Amino acid sequence: MDYTLEARGVSLRFGGVRALTDVSFGVREGELFSIIGPNGAGKTSIVNCISGRYKPTEGRLFHRGRDITGLPPNARANIGIGRTFQNLALFHHMSVLDNIMVGRHHLLKNNFLTGSLYWLTGARREELKHREKVEQIIDFLDLQSVRKAPAGTLSYGLRKRVELARAMALEPHLILLDEPMAGMNFEEKEDMARYIVDLNEEYGMTVVMIEHDMGVVMDISHRVMVLDFGRKIAEGDPAAVLADPHVKRAYLGEEDELLVDPDEAPSIAEDAA
After folding, report:
1. Which of these, 7, 73, 235, 272, could form a disulfide with 225 (CB 3.0-4.6 Å)?
2. Residues forming a β-bridge with 8
3. What's the rounded mean pLDDT across residues 177-181?
4. Parallel, antiparallel, or unpaired for β 231-236 and 223-228?
5. What is the DSSP letter of 175?
6. Nearest to 130 by CA among 168, 166, 164, 169
7. Is residue 121 predicted with pLDDT exceeding 60?
8. pLDDT bucket at 109, cuts 50 / 70 / 90
9. Distance between CA 140 and CA 52 in Å, rounded?
10. Does the pLDDT of residue 269 top 50, yes or no?
11. Residue 73 in contact with residue 53, Cβ under 8 Å?
């Protein structure tokens, strides 16, 4: 089967700590694929490997059949991979509009050699084109009322929405969402879940999402993968995964001697969560 994203035997170590061990999976075009697991399971580590922030110690990553294991993050953005972060990474002093415009940066045609000619010819036209795209995203995420407000003055839920908007501005076909609903109240989660579904269905983006809210995950995901101590313990449709006894053990904290060797399951640092 052809996958938009495929991981083959991905392992990651930080010194003597194993964050990931032999993780393999594939994400199909147009899928909403969720990665779940207890704290320290390796969820953010696998997303960081996909986005290029980390390079796997072992294994390979493929995007539409192309080996991207050694590509830096900016090169992955250029081929259509966008992401949000677990900890917000906005420019707090800049307006919502300008934060989203930052996401368009890699799409600009200007460079050092063509700069002078470009600014005499097509600069204004291109700026209007990018502004139009950003305004569409602002409308989609209902950010009109705060478009000129400094990002740092917004509520946490709105800032999470602005970060999603900036990732959308890259025009990715594959978007990685790292806990997009963390810290939100019930109403904010409902809104964000609706935006993510619309992103997948209306914009046609393939979504890979880390999320702790099991209700949301089971409600909107096409397929789910479960990690525990850096190993994949289950993958499939939400109902089957939820019923898996290994998954229940992982979430209940019960020891599963078939899956976890105590000598190979050290406490994972937050950066390898």
Report:
1. 235
2. 60
3. 93
4. antiparallel
5. E
6. 169
7. no
8. low
9. 28
10. no
11. yes
Residues of the chain with CATH 3.40.50.300: 1-80+173-273, 83-171
The domain 1-80+173-273 having CATH identifier 3.30.390.30: the answer here is no
Q: Rounded to whole angstroms, how far apart are CA atoms 70 and 266? A: 27
The architecture CATH gives domain 83-171: 3-Layer(aba) Sandwich (3.40)
Buried b (16+ CB within 10 A) or exposed e, 190-211: ebbbebbeebbeeeebbbbbbb
pLDDT (tens digit per residue) in 224-246: 999 999 999 999 999 999 889 98
pLDDT, one tens digit per residue, over 49-98 is 999 999 999 999 999 999 999 999 989 988 999 998 866 668 888 999 98
What is the distance between the alpha carbons of residues 53 and 89, in angstroms, rounded to a whole number?
A: 14
CA-CA distance, 141 to 239, in Å (whole number)? 30
CA distance linking residue 71 with residue 81, whole number of Å: 12
Residue with tokens 């789910």: 224
Q: Is 224 helix (H, G, I), strand (E, B) or coil?
A: strand
